Amino acid sequence: MLLPALNAELTLDPKGRLMLPRQLQVALEMQGINGLVAFANGGPNKGLALYTHADWDALVNQHRGTPLDPRSRLFALAIQSTAQTVSVDNAGRMLIPQPLRRMLNLERELYLFTAGSWFEVWDRPRWEEQALPEAAALWDQLYGFDSLKPPAGPVSA
């Protein structure tokens, strides 16, 4: 499922619930989705990744291998060991399980962004101070500074 491009600053309520942005709620509702798979993406103090069950199954199948395959073992340890099913209620709220909130240090101020077929939730101060600059540096390393600017002038055929 392709999600709409979205970036949002959100607040976690005292019960650990997050109100999803309306645009994301509508996209999920249109597909009849009210349950997602959440997991720690990158280990402790990183982001919470959320996939539909179908996209989660595709991700898991992509990493299936023999028990001796080191990549499959690492995937199981790092990702599958933290995976939990979460529900989106009729009001568009999602309860983030306490173990994941604790592991990822998700407190009150959060940042959500979509990334194609999944979305992530981060502690907002950590996103702004650490993860976003790291992502920008990686983008610059891979594609070069100003790579997102449109070309200057007409493109010749």
Folded structure, characterized:
- This protein is an alpha+beta fold and 157 residues long.
- The protein has a single domain (7-143), classed as Chemotaxis protein chec, CATH 3.40.1550.
- 34% of the residues lie in helices and 26% in strands.
- The chain is built from five helices and eight strands, in the order ββαββααββαββα.
- It has helices spanning 22-30, 53-62, 70-78, 98-103, 124-143; strands spanning 7-11, 17-19, 35-41, 47-52, 84-87, 93-95, 109-115, 118-123.
- The strands form two sheets. The protein has a six-stranded antiparallel β-sheet with strand order 1-7-8-4-3-5. Strands 2-6 form a two-stranded antiparallel ribbon.
- A hairpin with a 5-residue loop joins β3 (35-41) and β4.
- The longest helix is centred in the last third of the chain and has 20 residues, at 124-143.
- The two termini are 35 Å apart.
Short description, anyone?
The chain is α+β, with helices and mostly antiparallel strands. 34% of the residues lie in helices and 26% in strands.
How many domain modules?
1
Number of strands: 8
Order of helices and strands: EEHEEHHEEHEEH
Named at the architecture level, the CATH assignment is 3-Layer(aba) Sandwich
Number of helical runs? 5
Q: For the largest beta sheet, what order do the strands appear in spatially?
A: 1-7-8-4-3-5
CATH class: Alpha Beta
Main beta sheet: strand number and arrangement? 6 strands, antiparallel
Mean pLDDT: 85
Taken as a percent bin, the fraction of beta residues is: 25-35%
The name CATH uses for the topology is: Chemotaxis protein chec
Helix content: 25-40%
What separation lies between the terminal Cα atoms? Answer: 35 Å
Radius of gyration: 17 Å
